[in-house]
Every structure is written in C-alpha cells, then in structure tokens.
Amino acid sequence: MRVAVLSPVAWRTPPRHYGPWEQVASNIAEGMVKRGLEVTLFATGDSITAGKLASVCEQGYEENRDQDAKVLECLHISNLMEKAGDFDIIHNNFDFLPLTYSALIKTPVITTIHGFSSQKIIPVYKKYNSIGHYVSISNSDRSPELDYMATVYNGLDPQHFSFNETPGGYLLYFGRIHPHKGTAESIQIAKKAGLKLIISGIVQDEGYFKDQVLPYLDDQIQYIGSSGPEKRNELLGNALALLHPISFDEPFGLSVAEAMLCGTPVIAFNRGSMPELIKHEETGYLVSNIDEAVEGVKQIKSIKRKDCRDWAISKFSCDKMVDDYLNLYHQILSK
After folding, report:
1. pLDDT digits over 84-133, tens only?
2. 3-class DSSP state of 77
3. Can you say whether the dihedral through the CA atoms of 325, 47, 250, 258 is positive or negative?
4. Which of 39, 37, 14 is nearest to 27 (CA)?
5. What distance in Å separates the CA atoms of residue 93 and residue 96, rounded to the nearest whole number?
6. Is the peptide bond preceding residue 14 cis, with omega within 30 degrees of 0?
C-alpha cells in the first residue's frame, strides 16, 4: 500500500519541542513504515522519517519567520495533491484546507481532525461529508454536523518515556503558556499545596505570561522554557503529578498521556477529553476547581504509578493507533 502522510509545516516532523500535530503525523508515518507500507511523509525539509520525505521548504514557518505561513501551506498542500495519483490513500493531518482538493482527485483522503480552531471551519468539513473519511481524536471532540468513521486516540511510543516509580517532590505544568491551558491556575494550586512547581512550555501569549506568570516566579515557582524529548522525559518522570487545569474543551492533550506513560498521575479540570484520558482516582483526579485540585495533590500518593503506565500503554500507544488506522485504510480501500 502506498500512503501519503500530510503533516503541517509549522514545525519539524517530529518536532524538536512543541508541535503536537507534527508529533502524531510522525508517529503515524513511522508506524506504517514498520508495518511494511510504502510511506511518503509530506513535511518540512529538515523532518526525519524512515520513509520518503517530500517538502517545499527546509524549515517550518514557526522556526523561520522569514516565510509567509499561508503561502507555505498552499505550496505544501498542492505539492501533495498534484502527486495524488502516486498513492493509494492520503492521510491528512493538516486540518480542513486539503479537503478543498479532495473532490478533484481520485485518491481517497482520510482526515484526522485534531480539533476545531473555530466553529467557522465546520462548513468546509460539512461540504465533503459524503466523500471525506473523518476520524476524531476523542469522542468528546465531535461535531454533530459531521460523519465520522471512528475515534482513534493519539498514540505515543512507550519506549520514549521511562517509567519512574520514585518521583521527586515537585508538581509539573507542561504545555504552552496560554490562558486555555491553565498556567496561572497551576501556580495557585502549587502555592496552596505548598509544593514546588516547574513550568515548561513555549510562551504563546506574551501578555498572559507577563501578567499572570512572571510576577510569581521564585524559588518555588520556576519557569524553565520549552523542553525537548530528553528533558521532557526527565521532567515528566520525576514529577509527583502533572497539573492540567484547562479552561477549554481540549480535544486530546498529549502531555496527559505522556505523563502517564512515565507513571506520573494527572490532576486535570474535568473538561473535553479528560474523562477519556484519565481514570479518576486510578491514574489521577478529575476536578472542578483549584481547591479540589489541591485535595488531589494531597491524595496523589494513593495513585499507583504502575497503573498509570499500564493504562496509557493500553489506550495511547503508537502500536494501537497504527493498528486502528491501518484497519480504517483497509475499510476505505475495500469500498
């Protein structure tokens, strides 16, 4: 089977630090290569793959700001679509824009919907409901206006995450610095719990960082910038718990699965996909506010860290994700 995997071109695939869509696209591509499929990854020129690599730019537009993002996206998507006849199936991990080509080519397109940036993009998905093959990344992140083939949870390679039975005494916030992700709430939780908090992630909202994070940094609350894979593994594995007090209905949350793969339980606000990712009182706590999160911190040692890893492997491994997608590929091609 000849498969084209379309990744975004904001960051390298796989990303050096941040880039969740690029990470999932990479895991899909590499997993399909291991299954013996002929895979071409459409991504930035500095991307890494065991398959073939096709690119229109050397670096992503977030890593080289001299480029125009929209121009790069148009060149990138058209580069694949003009070669569509070379493939049996196209796996789109790049949102709604590639769908506008799908009625013009014969190759079927399966689209992983990594979330809706706005309800305003749904009309594009609706237009291609009859020929699109849509996959949600959680049951919570579905539009009633769209038809879905399945839900396939994002998958990670457990070998990239070391299990740690004996963590340190700090709490961890791991994600972009943005009001939606709850950096400020994590600071309040740590202060009320009397524990050290390490914050790691890209600053996506400068004003929020300046007003809600920077004034509270001290020996107890530390910001260490963005962390790549090796540092991420160390930070997650040594944490007493990951704090995830989101204020939006998050479609998935890779850091939640990553933490549990290290054996680290998660305390999250009960929104979006969190009930699908976290087994309440078994791999962490689903809470409604800061005070409940503090209570979760107090009880966190009652969570068995081995249970966290076992759960994450059973639900969020690369092997499971690739098997699920391969099954969908066969369903589409058998029609």
Report:
1. 999 999 999 999 999 999 999 999 999 999 999 899 999 999 999 999 99
2. helix
3. positive
4. 14
5. 9
6. yes
- pTM of the predicted model, to two decimals? 0.91
How many residues can be counted in the chain?
Answer: 335
CB 67 within 8 A of CB 61: yes
pLDDT at residue 335 in the model = 84
Alpha-helix runs per DSSP H in 99-179? 122-127
As a whole number of angstroms, the distance between CA 118 and CA 107 comes to 28
- Quote the CA–CA distance of 297 and 260 in Å, as a whole number: 16
At residue 228, does pLDDT exceed 90?
Answer: no
CA dihedral 312, 316, 320, 324 (to 10 degrees): 140
The pLDDT tens digits for 144-177 are 999 999 999 999 999 999 999 999 999 999 999 9
Residue among 117, 98, 109, 99 at smallest CA distance from 180: 117
